[in-house]
Amino acid sequence: MMSNPSLFAGGGVMGALMRDRDWSTTSLGPREHWPHSLIVLMRVMLSSRQPMFIAWGADRTLVYNDSYAPMLGARHPAALGRPFFETWPEVRDEVGSPMNRVFAGDPVHMDDLQLTLHRNGYPEEAHFAFSYTPVPGEDGSVIGLFCACTETTRQVLTERKAASERQRQQALLQQMPGFVAVLRGREHVLEYVNDAYIAVAGERDYLGRTVIRRHRAGASTRTTTPDACPDVGPRPTAFPPTHTAVPSQARRLAAPEPSCSYVFLTETARYRGGVFVMARSAPGRVANSPSPGPSGGRPNAASA
Known about the structure:
By secondary structure, the protein is an alpha+beta fold. The protein folds into 2 domains: 140 residues, Beta-Lactamase (2-Layer Sandwich); 140 residues, 2-Layer Sandwich (Beta-Lactamase), CATH 3.30.450. The chain is built from 7 helices and 13 strands. The strands form 3 sheets. A 6-stranded antiparallel beta sheet has the order 10-11-12-6-7-13. The chain is elongated, with a radius of gyration of 30 Å.
């Protein structure tokens, strides 16, 4: 145990705050009495761009780096050197048990912990991925907790909004007066079909299969749906906005023949592009066919 003036060098804003802090007023005590394990972890934490914190001792005194500070909201910088649950009283029920496990010697990892935080004076939903690692003392007992974490709130809420929008769109497609399919990518992989489509084309496993029959090295992929869909490339210029045709399979399954339209879906950074297929199904065909259930069509599980 010894004083180390260079401990906080290169630690950014938090390094400066920690250097100027009077640690004798906290449960950590004066810096010259800090154990070697705490000093090593401090150096690791302050030199990292990953959000990290240390909860040390019986009251779990909180120290953290620059990247963790924004997660504290308005509670930074007052949180430095305070017991963890004085800073985060609203998370005791969710976080208390995992922390107790760590101080009993059991590391904890979670990919998505949902919390309601009051860090900015109002309740807000927040999500975190983190790992808690126990820090043993010289006698082998756990004297601290080291955490590397990432806030994933924006990602989770964005994905939830996108899933909700997909569900809304699929509900609308389910109500359309004809069969509908959504094909993804250059291979035209089926991403969604509605009940009317299944009634016309037959009950089978469509999702994740391609609609294009191709021959490569003497082998062909199986065509599982009407095969009149044009071969659409990834660029909008490779395909006209709409195309009308009479799919051969639909011709065999229903009369009169449906009028089928294909609309190119523009490729974006989040979507590989594809084709929207819509047709007026044969009268009476849907009504007389069994419904696949209340699911509202057959969306791809990976995209719902």
